Amino acid sequence: MSHLLEVSGLTTVFDLPNGPATAVDGVSFAIREGETLGLVGESGSGKSVTALSLLRLVQPPGRIAAGRITFKGRDLMSLQETEMQRVRGADIALIFQEPMTALNPVFTVGQQIGEALRVHGRTTRAGARHEAIRLLTAVRIPDAPLRVDDYPHQLSGGMRQRVMIAIAIACKPALVIADEPTTALDVTIQAEILDLLREMKQSLHLSLLLVTHDLGVIAETADRVAVMYAGRIVEQGPVREIFRNPQHPYTRGLLASMPGGARGTRLRAIEGSVPLLGALPAGCAFHPRCPDRFAPCSTRVPGDYAATPEHSARCFLLDPLLEGRGALPPVPSS
Ligand SMILES: Nc1ncnc2c1ncn2[C@@H]1O[C@H](COP(=O)(O)OP(=O)(O)OP(=O)(O)O)[C@@H](O)[C@H]1O
Ligand code: SF4
Ligand SMILES: [Mg+2]
Questions:
Q1: Which CATH number covers residue 296?
Q2: pLDDT at position 161 over 80
Q3: What span, in angstroms and rounded, lies between the C-alpha atoms of 166 and 133?
Q4: How far apart are CA 149 and CA 138, in angstroms?
Q5: Which of 229, 263, 293, 323 is least surrounded, with the fewest CB atoms within 10 Å of its CB?
Q6: 316 lines ligand 2 (CB under 6 A)
Q7: For residues 132-140, average pLDDT
């Protein structure tokens, strides 16, 4: 399978009053055609900034400081803003956590789907309504011919998220980025929306970047997973390998904090908290919380070590040349 998206060394900083702070630090990953990559990590780890960076939607004081983003062989970083606008929606679509903020309250859902299609020249004014009804039916909104004239506030949260999915798939993008698409919803509705995303992915041959803090969602939906901590991808690989044989102590902690794999539970069993932006600990950023830290961890940044050809982790425990691994006790969290 060829790569649809390749990201290499992506670095996004925020120019804060006391200097630049790195929110995404040298992130590299790839997504193949038809594949779902899950991006997981605690709040503040840089998942949304990564997602926005891919579409070059980070607003000042944020900026992409380094990295390459290649989509279907095109270098997105070198595109003019007008070309980038064509990529957004038509090639890569974005679904947010809270559909109410993404939908415009003064237009009907039909008008908004029609607008998405017209922007990319995919339909005429006359054809838009018909196409909107077809899309609402595709995302399983009952009575679509009636619902097409509803305003967002007339729909439930789950129905609004279905509308967002309809807008996302309207122009038949190759890649959908879904940033916490189910977090704001009830657990049963979450399951329905995930089913719908999986179904759309299959029937439309989409690739999906699924951003979540929920490993249960990853287990059910993703083919591969990238675990983020403090702006870096600390482990990535096939979902099965990472669930069965996690290599990074942070990933192990996340898995241990998963209550029986139940969906909808926030991660928080690891002692301590994600470091604040601009105040990253030296060395391995996880070292103050790491139960396995040893001599080099507080001074040197670990490289990305291969566990298998498809599975890697940024942890000195995988460095075959280092001795005394796991020798120091964890530091108590402040
Ligand atoms: N506009 C901004 N200005 C300054 N800092 C920002 C801005 N947006 C995000 N950040 C910082 O960048 C870091 C990464 O944030 P990001 O939103 O990507 O986290 P996240 O992993 O998506 O978290 P969550 O799970 O809560 O959505 C955080 O420290 C956040 O405070
Ligand atoms: S590099 Fe050291 S501190 Fe970081 S995760 Fe590995 S053992 Fe823990
Ligand atoms: Mg986020």
A1: 3.40.50.300
A2: yes
A3: 10
A4: 17
A5: 323
A6: yes
A7: 96
Whole-number Å distance, alpha carbon 98 to ligand 1 midpoint, is: 16
Reported as type and span, the H/E element at residue 24 is strand 19-32
- The answer to whether residue 144 sits within a structural domain is no
Q: Are 5 and 71 in contact (CB under 8 A)?
A: yes
The stretch 273-287 carries a mean pLDDT of: 90
* Predicted pLDDT at 261: 46
DSSP code string of 208-244: EEEEES-HHHHHHH-SEEEEEETTEEEEEEEHHHHHH
Here the tokens at position 168 are 């996302």
Nearest to 277 by CA among 11, 9, 22, 18: 22
Full DSSP string of 261-328: T-TT-----SSS-PPPTT-PPSSSTTGGG-TT--GGGGTS----EEEETTEEE--GGG-TT--STT-S
Q: Which residues of 57-67 are buried (b: 16+ CB within 10 A; e: fewer)?
A: ebeeebebeeb
User: Does 292 sit in the ligand 2 pocket, CB within 6 Å?
Assistant: yes
Q: Is 290 in the pocket of ligand 2 (CB under 6 A)?
A: yes
Interstrand relation of 36-40 and 62-71 (parallel, antiparallel or unpaired): unpaired
* 48 touches ligand 1 (CB under 6 Å): yes
CA distance 159 to 178: 16
Q: Compute the distance from residue 160 Cα to the ligand 3 centre, in Å.
A: 19
Identify whether 168 is part of a domain: no
Entry pTM: 0.92
pLDDT above 50 (res 43): yes
Does residue 265 carry a pLDDT above 60?
Answer: no
Measured between its terminal Cα atoms, the distance across the chain in Å is: 46
Q: Is the CB of 317 under 6 A from ligand 2?
A: yes
CA distance linking residue 260 with residue 282, whole number of Å: 34
Q: How many domains does the chain have?
A: 1
For residue 179, give its domain range. 3-91+173-318
Is 257 within the bounds of a domain? yes
